[in-house]
Amino acid sequence: MFRGQPLHGGADPRPGFSGRSGRRLAPWSPDPAGLTLTLPSATVPPASRGAESLALLLLVGGLIGVIFPVTKIAQAAGVPPLPWAFSMMLGAGVILAGMARFKRQPMPLTGRYLRYFAVSGLLSMALPNVVLFFVMPWLGAGLSAVVYTLPPILTLLMAVAVRIEKPDRGRVAGILLGFVGALMIVGPRGSLPSPDLAGWMALAFVMPAAVAAGNVYRTVAWPPGGQPVALAAGTMLGGAGWVLLALLATGAVADLPALGLAPWLALLQIAVTALTYVLYFRLQVVAGPVYLSQIGYVATSVGLGTGTLLFGERYSPWVWGGAAVIVLGVLLVSFGRRFAR
Questions:
Q1: Membrane-spanning residues where (predicted)?
Q2: Domain limits of the chain?
């Protein structure tokens, strides 16, 4: 089902590969479960696959968006952030590890693989998840979802900084628009429901920054011969390991029984995360990374919609305007070369 390996040199004209090194940037995924794994090369889908691509885009983006309200409901039930993040990563990681074994995709435990699992797990899983679960009670589902439109912009910025991607005018304009949109959300007085939330909103921007750093790391560190499901499982379990360390360091291990306050929600979160990975891989294969990057629009729409309809959250015109400007910036980053022509 998956073909090819990540490139390590030589420019490649295929979609999803760019820059002087020819390396393919990891596609963006806004999911708190860290759906940002670089996958083996994919081709642009033929017209016959257009319906499947659209269906997968809506389904994956919708599943990602569901994570925001589910998390908020669980926290309202009294489940602390660290146990919630740990259970999600551990459960989904075990499911994916079982799938990798079924597919006969090895998950080596050599030094190179363990380092990959540790770094990727920290950047793509543990850090964004834990931050999300801490800011969610303050920002709500909608505002938490808005920041997940930023990883494509930050990924390009970091890739340019480490010289694995070459900028152009259209994409630079997209980066600038993304930051303008972010400033529209956190800057003006009255943009947030309360001025006291500015600090929490600033902390929320750690999430897309960590996801973007994880994208760049995986682009340069993908182990030779690595298989996607096996690496996804290892990354998920690596993230669970970091959260376990945080649980031990803070004494929050005693909070693990609190998962019993919302057991069905915990199981739902695990199932949604694992299912999202499976569908995400299929979308990568049939649609390619540029199309994949649009997941964020769907997830953010679901997050804002559920925040408004289910929880009565209200957002100022600055938030809606900032979100629209960020989306425009992401479009320029995704299609900047095409616009530049």
A1: 54-70, 82-102, 114-135, 141-160, 172-191, 197-217, 229-249, 261-283, 295-312, 318-336
A2: 47-340
